[in-house]
Amino acid sequence: MQTAVNERKTATPGIHAIWIRVAAGLLAAALVATLLLSNAIRIRIQRMEEANAAAAANNYLLENTEYVGLSAWERIQKVVRQMADQASLESHYEKASIAIAQGENETALYHINECLALVDESSEAYEELKMKQGCLLALLEDYEQAQTVFDEVLRRAPGNADAWLLQAQLLLQKGDVTAAMEHLRRYISCAEETADQLSVMAQLCYGAGEYADALIYGEQALAMAADDAAYGELFRCMGYAALLSGDDRAEKYLTSAIERLADTDPELFYYRGVLRLAREDYEEALVDFDAAIGLGYGTALAYYNRGVCYLTLEDYERLLADMQKVVELNEDEELTQIAQQLIAELTVGSEQES
Asked: Do 67 and 164 have their domain in common?
């Protein structure tokens, strides 16, 4: 058996001769992977479908529109009783609430604007109505006007944590990371400091590219949480933040995310596999790439990196299959060229053996 193995190794000298080229290709693949990660990973903040301004605005409206929960509009009822035009204000507010619940944002904005025309700027209701106006403008993608509205709210009520958060989301979407981070810090100083709030802050910092802050807030959230079983999304965020910042804890966080999110995200397995491949733990990396591909993450990078594992483990038949898949997908010119070279070397080795 050992003789057969030695003959097989001798028959494929070209494979090992191009190992340096493969390693160079792996570095290129890692760079591409990092770019893909920074541009494409979606961090899902708890109770938000997406970490963007529209989702944050929608979240605020649903949580602060009592009609959604089939309750009355008690929040401004006391103020309404003092209004001379009570029926008209009440009617517009109820219509706005119904429209918000039904996702009819233009109609809701019309009625909120009518409410604002009927209330005094010094009234209790004014701040709440302006918040809803800003959220509806954000949902209608009028971001500049929404920002103006939240600026006014914050001038009047600098302790309004929700306004700081929503304005930060708009600034992030605009690309003003410095201002967004300042707003996020004001938000966390105004909001009740709970594990959930710190978790949200960590994920927003990640979205802003502030990876060190994301890890700091994440650790604070975990230290405060009574049970971290529900924090899979936070571990995912921290894993990616650590990976992109070169933090040694990346694999630990990704493993914690995998344990909590089960088989919902193949990219978690893929990036943990990249880390294991980088430290030359080929068998463990292979397990992760198998899981990622099995769960649907069938990118050229995934097949290429799994192929690198097969190469180091001298499983040339599976190596050939994965390189053929890389060529078939043809997602990256450099990877395709390396895969073609490997296929050629394998073919020559096979012909020599036969």
From this structure: yes
36 and 55 both lie in a single domain: no
- Could you say which of 131, 150, 172 is where a domain stops? 172
CA distance 258 to 40: 19
The answer to whether residue 247 scores a pLDDT higher than 90 is yes
- 126 and 83 within one domain: yes
d(CA 252, CA 257): 9
- Count CA within 13 A, CB hemisphere, residue 334: 13
Is residue 65 situated within a structural domain? yes
Give this prediction's pTM: 0.66
* Tens digits of residue pLDDT in 129-156: 999 999 999 989 899 999 999 999 999 9
290, 259, 285: which is closest to 272 by C-alpha?
A: 285
> Do 141 and 78 share a structural domain?
yes
Q: Of 128, 143, 172, which residue is a domain's last?
A: 172
- Do 36 and 133 lie in a common domain? no
Burial label, 186 (beta-carbon count in 10 A; 0-12, 13-18, 19+):
buried
Residue 137 lies in a domain: yes
